[in-house]
Each structure stands twice: as C-alpha cells, then as structure tokens.
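Let us begin with a simple case.
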Amino acid sequence: MSDSYDAVPLTAASLAAWREEVSAALAAVTRGFEEKYGYGPGENAIHPPQEDDRAAAERLAEESPGFADLAVYYGEIGAVNMGDIGNAYFLRSGAEALDERLDLPEAGGTVPAVLIGSDGGGIHYAVAGDGAVWRSRRASTDSGFVRITNDLAEFLDLLRRSVHRFVESGQPGFV
C-alpha cells in the first residue's frame, strides 16, 4: 500500500484495480473479526453496477463536465458498503446518487452537487459540479461542507488508504 496520492485519471482499468485491492483488504477485515471485536462483521462489499447505475452514469456525464469522473465511476462500480471500516463508509449506487442533489454555497455560489455517500456517523460526501469532493461539517446536509479532495480519484484513494489503515492498525480512516 502506498501512503501518497499520485494523480491518476479514473478509467475502467484503474477502478477495476481499486475494486480488487479494496475488496481484498475488506476480506482481510472480516477474517477473525468476531474473535477480535466480540460480534460478527457487517456488510463489507463493493457491488457491481446495475443497469440503472449505468443509465445514471450516462445522465451525469451529459449534465456537467465536472461529473465526468462520477460517470466513469458509476459505469464500473455500484454501491459500496464498508460497515466495519473505522466509523463505516457507504457510497451510494449511481441510481441513488442521481436523485440525491444539493447546492454547495461553499463551492462559490450555488454549485450543484451530487451526494455520493456518508459515513456511519452521518457525515455526507458530495461531488460538486467542478469534480471536487466535499464533506459535511456535521451529520446534516444543512451543516455546511468543506472541500476535502480535488477530484473523485483522490477521494477513492483516501478510502483505499483508510481500509488499509484499519486492517493494519484498527485506526479510523482519512475521510
């Protein structure tokens, strides 16, 4: 596992590699989980996209150039459930995300954004029209957002690193 982020454009191949690496790390989390924590693991899986996720990807690609990475992502990956990683991470499927919209005043006016997921404490993650990923300050979409990465690829790298960190040390993640 690399601790640094090297900008890599999202492609079907890079997402396949991400899915494979993260899936293997998630499997490592579940081995011996009950013995270590005293209860069974929840769902920790990366689901393939469904047909409606792919249709949502096409609609997002047409909507804004900033959503191009989202379109590539949802063409290759469906819902992501990491219920036992840190405080948990959940990424919506493309079909769900397409319907989860908000405006981010912090992004410079009222910039349209797509809510892509949340953590187990209710913190929300959104991709703005410029492609940057934003995190809610509190467990509410009304609490304001802060920019955490410049693009979706960097956000996915933080999630990847978060899974590895949890496997290695039991410590929560980076997002």
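The second case is a distinct protein. As before, the sequence precedes its structure tokens.
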Amino acid sequence: MKRTVLVVTTSLIVSACAHRPPPLDKDEIYFETKIKQDGTKLFAFSIPSMKQPDGGKGGGVKGSGGRGSRSQEGGGRGGRSGQKDREGASEPSSDSSDRMAKQLYASLDEKLDETGYCQTGFIEIDTHQTEDRLHLLGECNETANDLDRLDFPAR
C-alpha cells in the first residue's frame, strides 16, 4: 500500500513539472496570441531588456496605453497617440529608456508583420519592465475571422 502511494505521488509530481512551460531564454522574443470567443484578438509580447552600462535599472518603459501602431487614428506606424493628454505633461525620460521603448516597438512591429496578426493596428493595454525583460500587452483593432482562428489556434 505504501509503495502504491509513493508511486502515485511521484507520478503526479513528475507530470506536474512536465506541464510547466519552459523558462524563457534570456535572448528569446516572446509572442503569444489569444483569440477570445467574441473574436477579440489579444497578444502578449516581450523582449530582453538592454543591459545598462552603469549596472543601474534605469527608468524602464512605463505602462501608458494608447499606442496605435498601424492604426488609422493612432498616428500611423510608431505613433503614440494621446499620451501627453492623459498624463498632463510628458515626463522627461532617459535616453536608455527611450532606446528600450523604441526597440520594443520595432521588434513588435516586425513580429506583427511576420505573423500578420494585427492587420489594422492595435491598442496598447499595458507596457512594463521586469528585471530583465520589456513586456507589452495589446489588443488588435480588428476582430478575428475564420482564417485567424485557423492560423492562431487556442493553446
């Protein structure tokens, strides 16, 4: 009886660890899509943050929302619409955080072009920085069609 419990417990522990997603490689670009039942197309994107020469963390990328890359009303590719209006006045930011933000958006634009995921642009829901990565959560302007559901199946 004790042996059966031990075998079952060990099997459960091993199978639980086997289903955990592997950790991201430090230099890996992460792109995950999710299409909700109502057709809403969401995505999560992250890239490794640039190393700072002085060892400091820097200002990072603040969550601002409203970046309308490739949107019809968001100022076109790379435009950030309305950020100054929402925050009152734009905060001064370091060159390093500007470079990191530009790299994040450039990498995201490249990934969206490569995959064809957001055809008419997206709304930035959140942007933030962790210790070693820059993250962006977004929602496509268009809803999913049947081809999108085939190309980007639920995981």
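DSSP finds four helices and four strands in the chain. Confidence is low (pLDDT under 50) at residues 5-12, 14-21, 53-60, 62-90.
Keep these points in mind for the review questions at the end of the chapter.
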